[in-house]
Specification:
With 264 residues, the chain is an alpha+beta fold. It contains 6 helices and 11 strands.
Length: 264
């Protein structure tokens, strides 16, 4: 496929995806998109000088691309392609449009999640190929999470640890505070059989497929969100998850007030 055809095709996908995003947000669902780093930029969206400067501070070309694509995609779907973001006190970008968004990247993927029904957080994480040190588990995992990891087969622990990590970080991004020092105070062990949807007090956690076996994705939404729609780049068929909000598995997740700026 020629570059001209590829760009024209991606432009059509962005236009259709934007229409789907707006429809889902009006229906009080959350909308999530996942794109590979090589996917063309959305039409008309711009990076501002401060964003270009921040992008250029990344050492790896892949990180530069991920940062740029995430910002451009968020700006396009929020519908303010030519306006700069504002920043919260923790450095999280936002626009005063009534649409909340969150950005994440890992490996070759970028994800942006949107909600018109309160805060949202998304996190991508690549599962480690090698076995992780037990000392790492103890430094970031709640005692119940350590017990859960210990109950799994050895070859599942690295991927399951990545699941826990994305759940914690998505939740903290939804809260708008980013990573905290005492991650071991937050317990996010999956309560449902497959761990795909889980209500956790103030937040509902959704595990979504990324199309990459080693990359995990979790989205944290307000409990009022009962449906999440995922659309991958180039695809016309969305992946949907829904839950009966009248029968949630509600539990509390604690977190502290000290935070570090989110890695967005």
């Amino acid at each position: 496929m020629s570059r001209h055809v590829a760009i024209r095709s991606s432009t059509a996908w962005y236009v259709e995806a934007l229409a789907r995003c707006r429809a889902e947000l009006r229906a009080h669902a959350a909308f999530v998109t996942i794109l590979p780093l090589e996917y063309p930029d959305p039409p008309g969206a711009l990076l501002f000088p401060d964003e270009v400067a921040r992008t250029n501070r990344y050492r790896l070309i892949s990180d530069r691309r991920a940062h740029a694509l995430g910002r451009l995609t968020a700006r396009y779907f929020v519908g303010r392609g030519n306006l700069p973001f504002s920043l919260t006190e923790y450095g999280k970008p936002y626009m005063p449009t009534g649409v909340e968004f969150s950005i994440s990247h890992a490996a070759i993927l970028v994800s942006v999640a949107f909600s018109a029904c309160g805060p949202i957080g998304v996190d991508l994480e690549r599962a480690a190929d090698e076995n992780l040190s037990p000392s790492l588990y103890h430094s970031v995992c709640h005692p119940l999470e350590i017990e859960w990891l210990g109950s799994l087969l050895h070859d599942r622990r690295s991927s399951s640890f990545a699941d826990l990590w994305t759940r914690k970080e998505a939740l903290l991004k939804a809260e708008g505070r980013g990573l905290i020092d005492d991650l071991d105070t937050i317990e996010v062990v999956p309560k449902s059989r497959n761990g795909s949807i889980d209500s956790s007090g103030r937040w509902r956690l959704w595990s979504l497929p990324t199309g990459e076996q080693q990359v995990r994705c979790t989205v944290a939404t307000a409990p009022s969100i009962s449906r999440v729609v995922l659309l991958r780049s180039g695809s016309a068929e969305p992946f949907e998850q829904s839950i009966d909000p009248s029968n949630p598995d509600v539990r509390e997740v604690g977190s502290t007030s000290s935070g570090k700026p989110p890695q967005i």
